[in-house]
Amino acid sequence: MYRPVHITESIYYVGVNDRRKSLFENQLPLPYGVSYNSYLIKDEKIALIDTVDACFFDPFLKKIEAAIGDRKIDYLIVNHMEPDHAGSIRFIRERYPDIRIVGNTKTIEMINGYFEITDNLQEVKDGTILELGKHQLSFTLTPMVHWPETMMTYDITEKVLFSGDAFGCFGALDGGVIDQTMNLDKFWSEMRRYYACIVGKYGVPVQNALAKLQGVEINYICSTHGPVWKEQIEKVVNSYSRWSRYEAEAGVVIAYGTMYGNTEQMAEAIAEGVIAGGVKNVVLHNVSQTDASFILSDIFRYSGLVLGSPTYMNELLPGVESLLRKLEVRQVKNRIFASFGSFTWAGVSIKRIAPVVEGLKWNVVGSVEEKQALKQEKYNECFSLGMDIAHKIRC
Ligand code: FEO
């Protein structure tokens, strides 16, 4: 038998872990898996908040039944329509045919679009109150965090915020649900990677959502991924606030492509210069070896970025090009930047990087380019470039 998992006396966790999927959204590695969180509020009326990936409907339903037995669910509140959360809507409706699905105008359009469901829908707006008995729920629309229909549900009675993807992270839950009962080590970096890859383009909408939450008393944040936050609420909200403003710690990411190691030698020399300049946080990423999601995560963390590429077919090496495009899409701001590259007969890579960086208005410290193998003179220039970056970061 499954057992009910309580967040509070009348709020239950009914989410599931996915330890089989290797790529989230079929593109982002999941070294620690991922959880799809769903919650039940049991009162005179019962509300289910979000569902789970359709592949997990069977354990999901067993968890629901462990919490409420044969009682029916009155409301399904849909904070977010992405299929990792909305995937079981059709099955839930088949199991609980009288359930009313609650969402905003955009949610309801999407429910029609994904499931062709057009009846038993209840539209809510910013500030609408839904009464369950003792529990009163209010809804806050948070468009573009990170889809247009995203909203949050606040339990006024118990001061619990059901935040959708916001404040969530990769990483399956290893037996615990609430932060204070768990070792959180893996979740902090996975939260930043989640933010950088999925929410990172939407800094302003995140700030708007945070502004709406200002002054709201919160005992628990129940996100759709990762732990329920109780003790760490301040830390997770501050992290979102920082990342959405593209604020960063002192440190340098050196991301480079390399074919035969010549550009890589330049990266090593720049790193030595950064360390000599007194900045301890230096991370080197070979774009052909490290998945871009981890590089993006570090770029959201640190204030300095150095990008290098050999010239390849008169362009950037594809992995560097792809990373640069990801940064452009996310409009990453406020970075101290330098570039480097090597070539055999025609140097182009630095020229390809420059216009993107100009568009992002980064603070450019300089660049170094070498023809063929790295020689002493250019080694010295790389080292000096690293020192200059460190100096800018420390100022
Ligand atoms: Fe976890 Fe945006 O879906």
Which properties best describe this structure?
25% strand, 22 strands, 12 helices, alpha/beta, 7-stranded mixed beta sheet, binds MU-OXO-diiron, 395 residues
Question: What can you see in these coordinates?
Answer:
With 395 residues, the chain is of the alpha/beta class. 35% of the residues lie in helices and 25% in strands. The chain contains 12 helices and 22 strands. It has helices at residues 57-68, 83-86, 89-95, 105-115, 185-199, 203-213, 233-244, 262-276, 292-301, 318-329, 349-360, 376-394; strands at residues 5-6, 11-13, 16-18, 23-24, 28-29, 34-36, 39-42, 46-49, 75-77, 100-103, 121-123, 129-131, 136-141, 151-155, 160-164, 220-223, 249-256, 282-286, 302-312, 315-316, 336-343, 363-371. A 7-stranded mixed sheet has the order 1-2-7-8-9-10-11. α8 (262-276) links the parallel β17 and β18. It starts with a strand and ends with a helix. The model has no long low-confidence stretch (mean pLDDT 98). MU-OXO-diiron is lined by residues 80, 82, 84-85, 146, 165, 224-225.
